[in-house]
Amino acid sequence: MQGNVASAEGALAAGCRFFGGYPITPSTEVAERMASRMPKAGGVFVQMEDEIASIAAVIGASWTGKKAMTATSGPGFSLMMENLGFAVMTETPLVVVNIQRGGPSTGQPTMSAQGDMLQCRYGSHGDIGIVALAPNSVQEMHDLTVKAFNLAERLRCPAFLMADEHIGHMRERIDLPDTVEVVDRTQLEPGTLPFAAGPGLVPGFPTFGKGHRVHVTGLTHDERGYPATTDPEVHAALVERLVRKVEGARREIADYVVTNPDAEVVFVCYGAPSRAVAQLVADKPDEGIGVLRLRLVWPFPEHALAEFSNATAFIVPEQNLGQIASEVERHTDLPVVPVPKLGGELHTPAELARVYEGVRR
Amino acid sequence: MSFEDWLRADRLPHIWCSGCSNGTILNCTMAAVDMMDWDPDRTVVVSGIGCSSRAAGYVEADSLHTTHGRALAFATGVKLAEPSLNVVVFTGDGDLAAIGGNHFIHACRRNIDLTVVCMNNLIYGMTGGQGSPTTPLGALSTTTPYGAAEPAFDLAALAVAAGANYVARWTSYHVRELEKAVKAGLETPGLSFIEVRAGCPTNYGRKNRIREATDQLEQFRTRSMLKVKYDRLVAEGKPVPHDAIVVGEFVRRSNPAMGVAP
What we know:
heterodimer; A: alpha/beta; Rossmann fold; eight-stranded mixed beta sheet; 14 strands; B: alpha/beta; two-stranded antiparallel ribbon; 9 helices; 34% helix; 19% strand; globular
């Protein structure tokens, strides 16, 4: 099965029943699979007029209680930024699959990249809280799409599947489980203010059509949902909560794989480059090369770096100029060596071996 | 019930300036909704950004106050995901015809079962009176200080051409006709578009010698021309005043529509 198709299947398994999208290479197979499968699953597929409309329709659908998603790549992802901020502000659960291609601009439509890793975290204006996952196999295209839905529903925020073209277009044999673990959003208790959050920081969801008569706005709003745009305290409390509900779940939702925790030299990787790292580790079994592979990149699991108590350096291969390497640097005093690779090709194990040898010396 | 039962009492007074037409248009719209005997718990009001779009927040129903220009795209998601909900969209000329122009024509093309009420005041009111796509040639605004140089959009004609099943234009002077037009729109499956010429004494009127709300209404009364009369004059080759506001029903048809409740 192809990675993009596996993502669509994962979404359906997670309960997705609305897909709004716009064709864009290299993500289009997600939409095509949804166009074929969604009507049979009792859901809705709609091809919108652009990516702005796609994410808008997804947000609208989510407010009717449907699990909703879209899929895109760089240029479309850029167009979605404003409404993604709206989704953060209104606490709308949704999933965006981004099959990353070479940017900036139209860049390399058919070639792989990881250049949107900071955009997904910081691209919409204002302070935001989001979740981002990074699959490195077709199986994970399925499994982490399921997980993205579960985290979006639980935290009431956008969740991104930040795949790259390599993984999206990769074909591998996978296991499609009969059932998957599914998290559904907690409904608003009657008599509770719609945007009043308890200790969990995530308010219950006032689904449209259920009698809540809720007002949903991208303006700064109070716990009733009413605009309160000039009240500094309301604004600060709201935005701090929107960020804290996600960042505060950092340890709990962390998802990473540790290899050789006693290692001195440790690769930190995610997505396609982690496949080259895995090959290097397999090629040099006696070296005990350390690997921290992130399946969930945002919120960044900074505590995971401490799993390597003997570490002397971190090597971060990415299909960008060091976006997550800079995040690693923020959380360690040890040397961090970025291994950027632009152009759309995978790092080779030999390239990584040379960097590894240099750092080990 | 009356239209007043459809308003959130705890949200009033509204933010609109004195002399603004938006309150009248909101009342007429909700009076029409009230005549439909809709359940407020199964009704969703969607809007974009601008003076017009604050209307959603005043309606006692589920309401979605979205981003600038995107109300129809959000409403499309709501209606397709849950066709049993009744969906009304409030928008304005800047919201609908400038930043949201693409969503407007595609919502009409899809003929989604929405009723769209556009408060067309010929100006960006919320930001202080800049020219919009419907500002008439020569009209003054803060961004057209020497007179608007661009031709204006005819929103009703645009909606007809793009495929909407019901299209009408009235002004905030024509409250009875407006109410009936909104009701006809609510009853028509598919996209219904009601353009309402609205007065904005604060930002449009003060620059264009219509400072008083009553003067604006008088203009609406005297300059409005029924579409049937306008069509007849044109067919007979007779002159039509250049400032005529053509009002009435532009189209009512039953082309295939999306999102219609089963």
